[in-house]
Design goal:
The structure is a homodimer. By secondary structure, chain A is mainly α. In chain A, 73% of the residues lie in helices and 0% in strands. Chain A is built from nine helices and no strands. The structure holds a DNA duplex. Chains A, B: It holds the Pfam family TetR_N.
DNA sequence: CTTGTGTCAGAATACGCGTTCCGGCAGAGT
DNA sequence: ACTCTGCCGGAACGCGTATTCTGACACAAG
């Protein structure tokens, strides 16, 4: 008897993600959300109960659609340094395909805009950064050319994570992917020089 | 005949800076501003005309109070690499003295929270980043151990700037200055290894 | 065709915040 | 002591937005 729903909670979160990502949390009103997602207020509130819950639901969607394709290969097998080089290549490709200057990284944006005043969002951000860190750490572990001591490896992985987030931030204010590629190349050159 | 004013536009901007820095632009209401600065709404509006103008006035104050003491020595004379090492040492000291986890860098925060939707703020951010970049570039120029080609030097200076901004971001989610020092040391180690 | 369920669009509500406005008063000059 | 200037505290206004509510409607089942 009921009408067939035109959306699923997942597809709603996906549409909302695009909006929050480009517009930020505060600047994205419910009116905009309704218009851009094509789902009525009623639909949004029955699916998620509020704006913030919908926002939180965007994090796993972002991970699935954006982070995983770029990051997952890093934890694969093979040369560790090559895996990290590949990561930054895919990162710039991703930024490029989104368009430059672009919205940067959804999570990095959240970490400065929302996380400081919201523990739940801060937790999502911390989780994301930890994922990056462990991925880089396992890649460094596989790197054959050097045997880094464990604490140093962890610190190095964090440094790579910090730079990765910085590169996303830079992608918001440049219109040339070549610039990003150059930044990444410089950093990777430093890294490679040290490991070999 | 008039009452002696209890504040100057500069001291008002200084107090406002502290609030915007810790609380962000959106989350800092005029009520909070009035309470924390000790200046009445009337005083704020006659001095600056509105919230955003006051916010913009905070940028030069931030530069004077925070950026200059940390950055200016970089453009001095002497060994270039040592100047950059000194910069990161002072950066971490500054973050430490503010308290950890802290509010990060006022300008980096502005770049993700406000700049995307406000050209005037974006210009202030770009100006700040350019200042960092040229400072690092002149330091690299003074570095005696290597003769970097000019384009590479500029790219390297930008990479250092990106990492510096990333480190400030990291200072918002860690409570140990030792962690920051470690991140900086790892990065500087990479840099030094490459230049020598 | 009728019925009933769940969705949709938009109005109504409640609230927060930037801005403006107004009486009261503190203090320097005479 | 008196006056007069201009600043202060706080109320008032207008706007924007998250949330709730309501009546109309679309569609599948009988």
């Amino acid at each position: 008897m009921p009408r067939k729903p035109s959306h699923t909670p997942e597809s709603l979160a996906d549409s909302a993600l695009a909006q929050f990502w480009y517009g930020g949390y505060e600047a994205t009103s419910m009116d905009i959300l309704v218009k851009k997602t094509g789902v009525s207020r009623h639909g949004i509130y029955t699916d998620y109960g509020g704006k913030k819950a919908l926002y939180l639901a965007c994090f796993p969607r972002y991970h699935q659609h954006v982070v995983s394709p770029v990051l997952d290969p890093v934890t694969g097998s093979g040369d560790g340094m090559a895996a990290i080089v590949g990561y930054f290549g895919r990162l710039v490709e991703m930024a490029e395909s989104i368009g430059l200057p672009g919205p940067g990284c959804f999570v990095v944006n959240a970490s400065t805009e929302v996380a400081p005043h919201d523990p739940e969002v801060a937790a999502k951000v911390a989780e994301h950064n930890a994922r990056l860190e462990t991925a880089f750490s396992t890649a460094l572990q596989r790197e054959q050319s050097t045997r880094l001591p464990m604490p140093h490896r962890k610190a190095l992985a964090r440094t790579i994570m910090i730079f990765s987030n910085g590169l996303w931030t830079a992608s918001r204010s440049t219109d040339k992917s070549e610039t990003l590629r150059e930044h990444a190349a410089v950093f990777l050159d430093l890294l490679e020089y040290r490991l070999k």
